[in-house]
Amino acid sequence: MADRGASAPSLPDDWPAHPDHPILALNRLGTFDWDLDAGLFHMDAQAYQVFDLTPEEYDGRPESLSVRVPLTEGSRLDAVVSQAIKDGSENYGAYFRIRRRDGTPRWTHTQGYIRRDETGRPRRVVGVVRDATQELEDSEARSLRAAQDHALRRQTGVVQVVTAALAHARSVQDVIDALKDTQGIPNLGATSLVMGLVEAGRIRLVAEGPVGSFVPGTRITRTDEPYPMSEVVRTLGPRFIESPEEFAEGYPILWPHITELHITSAAYLPLIAQARPIGAMGLLYNDRLGFSAEERAVLVALGSSIAQSLQRAMLYEQEKDLAQGLQQAMLPRTIPSVRGADVAVRYRSASAGGGALGRDIGGDWYDLIPLPGGRVGAVIGDVQGHDTHAAAVMGQLRIVLRAYAAEGHAPATVMARASVFLDELDTDRFATCLYAEADLSTGVVQVVRAGHIDPLVRAADGSCRKVHVAGGLPLGLSAEFKSLEYPVSTLELNSGETLLLCTDGLVEQPGTDLGDGMRCLMRQVAAGPEDVRALADRLIEVAEDRGGDDDVALLLLRRRGPDTAQAVGRLRQHVAPGDPEALTLARHLVRAAVRAWGAGDRADEIELVTDELITNALMHTEGSAIVTLWVLGGGGDRRLRVEVEDSSSALPRRREAGADGVSGRGLLLVDEITDVWGVEARGGGKAVWCEFRMPGPA
């Protein structure tokens, strides 16, 4: 403390001011009166206690306080007073340190009031001095607690944000991404994150820290190896490493590989779900030492939340793998090549948007069934529901429907029998379905619909139209509504035209009705590429972009032109006994095929003979009949051949019908109308055949 003017020994009349003030003394406040002119610094008894001095040890001069006030502190305090005087201030305050008699440091606070004369010249400083050690310690403690509380609130907020993000995780990678997000683990101050999952007594690393920080030999480790993640998995307790020395001493094998990361501390947490370890996680820091009790509690809570999310994600992935495996097993493994057609099939599973496990699978399916005579059956269907049960029902229904079609039953019969099967399956599910049976040689397509959406046809010029198909009830409702009627609609698929069958997941759009969805799909088909595979990809891409919680099954069948297809193929139809509808369909097919093959002028004759042969087979044998039509020869020697096969080896007899007879005229009719006919033995049965001469090339 500088001497402010010892040359003026006279003291003011009121000096010292308020000595030994009792109220101030009660509050442990010492007073002083500093005469700047005389250079004397008077202290009361309480001030002596603050400075740990006795009156005998002090001569009244401020520089004598240097025995208690270190030089640096005195210089700093003198600068504060000088600045206040220079600035014209009325008061000042400052904290400074003293050293007590026993050598212990103490914080002291002084506050002075500067008195000036009428000219503004400073003459005296009157003030107080007090011990501030406890005050500053309390202040530091409060600041530290405030900082710790702030850090704890921030960490707790990070845990809440991470927990909220983890709630949407549906895979292990989603969990890792949520932790590495800018709102996640980085907000806890961690430099690096490592995570491993327990699999068959080993820990498989699924996430590691910065690029290039991978430690060789740690991709898969045993739980008994000397690594921190192995330790927490074994002990089921967290491991907090508070210094580099502790890390190096505890894990000498691992430490040399991570020294370049400059790790100063680490927290390894076991990931426990349902009382068993499913993995471990490590957070590595390079800017801190140690962890408070609150920080440890927050990290342990975070580990618990991560473990629960990981378990949900792992269960979801397992369920999804099972569901997808079941789905793939139920759908056709391969689609057969079809002569005369280009085929493309696609399946897209639903995106349930965080729904229940297993909702990424449904009952949508497609199928392509090769049939006798060069025909092909195309199926699209949708079993109610989005779960493994729907997929299982779909698989059974697909196989049964395929079997009925392969047996040669008419489309309406195939659909009716499939409905009865589903009704008898003892399930609460129903299904919609569309079955199209196409003869690619003639382009004739028979379509039956069970509650499904109508098919589309894209013309060779790119235009697209919806084909209205008369429909019946969804499959499985036959017993409830006592209806097995499935009317058959017929369309002709010209060369270059594409038949599109799909489930409603490709049509339905949020906020629009089914009609709008169909019109939108028609525009997409019309604007799409000509190649059926490229078109299928484009439609599925649109469905992916749109999202939605329904499956999509899609089947495209494009009839090739005559240059790449067999110009005239075989047409075969199975006609079961007691199935009048199948007989009607056979007549319809014969009429359409004959006209398509250029024998329209003999269509009535051919239809009449074919009907007679089928009727004879059904009446005089115990089984079904199979009718086959195709064209023989070429040029000016083209003949249409009709064969009707049955399972009886008994040869037909031509009989003379009586005047009143109702039978016996069938073979006479065949003999009169056809150009040639005959009978051939076929294994355990026979085939009655006939031929009709046709004009030149159609």
Keywords:
rod-shaped; six-stranded antiparallel sheet; 27 strands; alpha+beta; 698 residues; disordered N terminus; six-stranded mixed sheet
Helix/strand layout:
Elements: H1 22-26, E1 30-35, E2 40-43, H2 45-51, H3 71-87, E3 91-99, E4 105-116, E5 122-131, H4 133-166, H5 172-180, E6 192-199, E7 202-207, E8 220-222, H6 228-235, E9 239-241, H7 244-250, H8 255-258, E10 265-273, E11 276-285, H9 293-330, E12 341-348, E13 363-370, E14 375-383, H10 388-406, H11 411-424, E15 431-439, E16 444-450, E17 456-458, E18 464-466, E19 471-472, H12 478-481, E20 489-492, E21 498-502, H13 514-527, H14 532-546, E22 552-559, E23 571-575, H15 580-596, H16 603-620, E24 625-632, E25 638-646, H17 666-673, E26 676-682, E27 685-694
Helix pairs in contact: 4-9, 9-10, 10-11, 15-16, 16-17
Helix content: 25-40%
Overall SS class = alpha+beta
Oligomer: single chain
Q: Mean pLDDT across all residues, rounded?
A: 80
Question: Order of strands side by side in the largest beta sheet?
Answer: 8-7-6-11-10-9
The low-confidence parts are 2-8, 352-358, 563-567
Largest sheet at a glance? 6 strands, antiparallel
Describe the global form.
rod-shaped
Question: How far is the first residue's CA from the last residue's CA?
Answer: 126 Å
Query: From the alpha-carbon coordinates, what is the Rg to the nearest angstrom?
Result: 48 Å
Number of strands: 27
**Number of H/I helices:** 17
Percentage beta strand? 25-35%
Provide a descriptive summary of the structure in words.
This protein is α+β, with helices and mostly antiparallel strands. It contains 17 helices and 27 strands. A 6-stranded antiparallel β-sheet has the order 8-7-6-11-10-9, sandwiched between helices. Strands 13, 14, 15, 16, 19 and 20 form a 6-stranded mixed β-sheet that branches. α4 (133-166) packs parallel to α9 (293-330). 36% of the residues are buried.
